[in-house]
């Protein structure tokens, strides 16, 4: 049976790839997208969600915008524009959207979609967890109705923004702490798995075909690759969000281990760290799963075939 999918996102280049993967996968039916501040401010991430959907010919999917300000602290100037560009999509040439976000805010929109879905709902969050923390606070009744909750965020081992913190958690650690404590069973797809998969430039070379779809994706992926190559000296990227999306679309594509996950919000050196306890001693009960690995070749095969399918509809 098709599962309903709700996507909370801060597009974001790898978010755009993840959204494309979901739209092209018949296993899930995307019933709504909510936007959050993260890779860029909320106005930019909402604009990007709308114009991407229009570009994909899927403006039938409603977009609700959420929170710009983090749940638990003042917004920081992240200085991470080099990753996704000032507009969140590396200045890509995509027209302004002709559609608008719905008037409902993201938590109310998610709650309504979850309550009224005739199909089991998977919720995936591929940005900071701000909207989801507010969902937990304002609409706690829907939390047990979510069949699966997958996030791209966190790191049991090594971080990216700091040695121990991953960006989506670090941006709003109190929100992540609230979500992990909410009783929602979370599949944490963090850097442990996303850093293990390298998406080399040659894998998507076929997007340099001069088509409309190819031009947009070649532009954003080239920019993302330029950024990564400064650090790694290799023409590759980590497709964090599309990897998490793969686990949302194809449950258990990853090796998962039960864990009790909590978030450090105060440490001078450790703020934003996802403290991941897989020992589960002394009656500690897991509140989710940590993802450790995935078959990278299989992921790339599925991702490229999804992008090709979407490309054939966009032109
Ligand atoms: C995460 O941070 C963002 O830059 C990406 O979109 C991804 O969601 C990776 O740390
Ligand atoms: Ca993201």
From TrEMBL:
GO terms for biological process: purine nucleoside catabolic process. Keywords: Glycosidase, Hydrolase. InterPro entries: I/U_nuclsd_hydro_CS, Inosine/uridine_hydrolase_dom, IUNH, Ribo_hydro-like. GO terms for molecular function: purine nucleosidase activity; uridine nucleosidase activity. The keyword Hydrolase applies. CDD domains: nuc_hydro_IU_UC_XIUA. One of its GO terms (cellular component) is cytosol. Residues 5-300 form the Inosine/uridine-preferring nucleoside hydrolase domain. It holds the Pfam family IU_nuc_hydro. This is Unannotated protein.
